[in-house]
Structure formats: structure tokens, C-alpha cells
Write a structure and sequence with these properties.
Bound molecules: methionine sulfoxide
Radius of gyration: 17 Å
CATH topology: Beta-Lactamase
Number of strands: 6
Shape: globular
Distance between the termini: 61 Å
Length: about 180
């Protein structure tokens, strides 16, 4: 059995490794998102990158505001619900409050909308254009309590990079 000091040291190594992995992922995301192209390409590529690179992620994608509801945008994962009214589910709540919502256990979030029965925890980050919420980035995990400070920091920076892409080319909002 490990002593207290040994387990503290092991936890520190694990944390350092995780932070290193997050730094590497951020560098990859920065080079993946190309500000010279249509944002749809960046939204699609980022969804796939996160879905397949961050461990235990079963769904990653975007919803964008169309009037009073969020509408499904590019994603990577199982087919999902197309329309989410503002204020409903984790996505609609995050967009209405303009707040990141981290849900360690989706079964304990009142009104959670289950698109993939495998999802156990979820993180939703609002996406802005000109300081206003225009959508959300939604990341689901099959593991409970999957999202911690390191993941939230990485994914918030990824969403910020998407905001730069949207601000550089606004074609997506002309529909
Ligand atoms: N769970 C979300 C719905 C979207 S899916 O997870 C892809 C929600 O409660 O808003």
C-alpha cells in the first residue's frame, strides 16, 4: 500500500502529466483552427479533434441561436436533437444565462436532454460574437465527473478560438 507521501507524489505526477497533455492539445487546436477559412470547417474539425483526442468524450459539437432556440450545428458523435429552446436542458440554460455549465452527473441536472444514453457528465460553454451569446459548445463524456479545471481551461480556450473564427468570417450567421 502507498504511504500518504507516495500517493501525494503520484497525484502530483498525474496532474503534471495531465497539464502537459492539455498544453499539447491547446497547441494542436491553435494550429487546427484556421482563421482564413469558413467557420463551418473549423467547427467541424474542432468537434472531431476533441471527440477523438480528449479521452472518454462521446460527443462534441455546437448549437447556434436561431431566434429563441438553439439549433444543431457541426458536431462529432451520435445524431443529436436538432432544436433546444433557450432555457431548456444544459445547452439552453448555459446560453440563456451566458454561463459555462459543468454537470458532473447528468442524471442530477433537472431537464437534462439525453441525446446519447451513454453520456454521464457534460460541459457547455457559451460562444459569443460581438459580446453576445450566439451559441454554445457542448462536450459530453461517458464518464461521470469527467470535466475538471484543466479540461475546462482547455475547452474555454478552444471556444475562444472559435469565437475568433466566427468574428473573422460571419457567413454562418447569414442563414
Ligand atoms: N444534453 C444536452 C443536449 C444536447 S446533447 O447532449 C448533444 C442538453 O441537456 O442541453
Amino acid at each position: 500500500m502507498m504511504t500518504l507521501t507516495e500517493s501525494a507524489a503520484a497525484a502530483l505526477v498525474q496532474l503534471t502529466e495531465r497539464n502537459k497533455a492539455m498544453d499539447e492539445m491547446l497547441k494542436s487546436i491553435e494550429s487546427l483552427i484556421d482563421l482564413s477559412v469558413h467557420p463551418l470547417s473549423n467547427l467541424a474539425n474542432l468537434s472531431a479533434y476533441i471527440r477523438f483526442t480528449l479521452p472518454d468524450i462521446n460527443w462534441c459539437g455546437f448549437y447556434f441561436l436561431q431566434g429563441e432556440a438553439l439549433q444543431l450545428g457541426p458536431f462529432c458523435g451520435l445524431p443529436a436533437c436538432i432544436t433546444i429552446p433557450l432555457g431548456r436542458g444544459v445547452c439552453g440554460s448555459a446560453a440563456a444565462a451566458d454561463k459555462t455549465i459543468c454537470v458532473p452527473d447528468v442524471n442530477r441536472f433537472p431537464g437534462h436532454i439525453a441525446c446519447d444514453a451513454n453520456s454521464r457528465s457534460e460541459l457547455v460553454i457559451p460562444v459569443h460574437l460581438d459580446g453576445k451569446v450566439v451559441g454554445v459548445m457542448d462536450i459530453d463524456s461517458s464518464v461521470p465527473d469527467r470535466f475538471h479545471e484543466a479540461e475546462m481551461e482547455l475547452l474555454t480556450k478552444a471556444a475562444a478560438r472559435i469565437e475568433c473564427s466566427l468574428a473573422t468570417n460571419r457567413v454562418i450567421f447569414a442563414i
